[in-house]
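We emphasize that the prediction below concerns an isolated chain of 280 residues; any contacts that depend on oligomerization or on bound cofactors are therefore not represented. The input was used exactly as deposited, without trimming of termini.
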Amino acid sequence: MSTTTMTPETTRFGLPRTLRLGFRRIRFELRQYFRAGDQVFFTFLFPTLMYLVFATIFTGDIGEGPDAVSMATYYLPGLIAGGILLSGVQGPALEISTEKSDGTLKRLGGTPVSPVTYFIGKLGQVFVTAILQIALLIVVAVVVYGVVLPMDAAAWARFAWIFVLGLVTCTLLGIALSSVPRTGKSASAVVIPIVLLIQFISGVYIAFAMLPEWLQNAAGVLPVKWIAQGMRSVFLPDSFKAAEVSGSWDLGLIALVLLGWLVVGFVISRLTFRWIHRNG
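Result of the prediction step, given as a C-alpha cell string:
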C-alpha cells in the first residue's frame, strides 16, 4: 500500500501549521499513554521497579578505596539506559503496531494530518515520558539509597547529549520495529522479548565484562550497550573505565555508533512506515 495521498488540504498546510498541529498532538499522545495502565507499568515504571529489586538485593560497595561506590550507584547508569530503550523502542513499536491494526492510521490517512505531524506527537510524547521516567529513577536512587549524584557540569552536559541522541535513535528504531508485528495483538509477543533480550546482553542488568566474549562482540554493535557505557561515564568514578572492554569510556565512539544507528532507524522507518498496514 502506498503512502498517504496528498490532498488539497495537505498541500495547503505549510511547515508552521504542520509543526503547530504536531505540538498539539503531543498532549493527545500523552493522555493516551497514561490511560494505558499496562504500558505505564511495563514502560514507564518498569526501570524504577527493576532498580528497586537490584539495589535492594545486591548491597555493599564495588571498587576500591575512595572510588568505591554502592551497588545502588553502580546499577543506576544501566537502568537509565534500559529506560531509554523502553521509552524509545518498546513504547512506539507497540503503539504504532496497535494503531495500524485498529484502524487509527487508516483514519488518519484520510485526514489532512501528515505523517510529520503524527511523528512530532510521538517523539514529543517519548521525550516527555522518558524525562519523567528517568527523573523518577534518579529521585528514588537519591532518596531511598543515598546515591550521590555528580556535581560536575561537564558530566551533566555529557548526560544530556547521550540522553537526547540515545532517545532519538531508539525512537526511530522503535518506529522501524513497529513494522515487524503482523497484528496489534501479536505486537507484545514480538516486541517485549526483543527488548528484554537486548537489555540483558547490553550491560543493563549484568556487567558487560561478565558476558562471554562472543556475546560481547554481538551486543557490542547494539546502541543500548553504548548508551549504558556513556551513562556509566557520567555516574561512576573515572577509574571504572578500566572495566570497559577497551579500558576507556570511548565517548567519541559512542556518538558515532548512536549516529550510525540513528541513520539506520531513519532509513528503515522511512521505507516501512505506512498509514495503512501492508496486509490491508
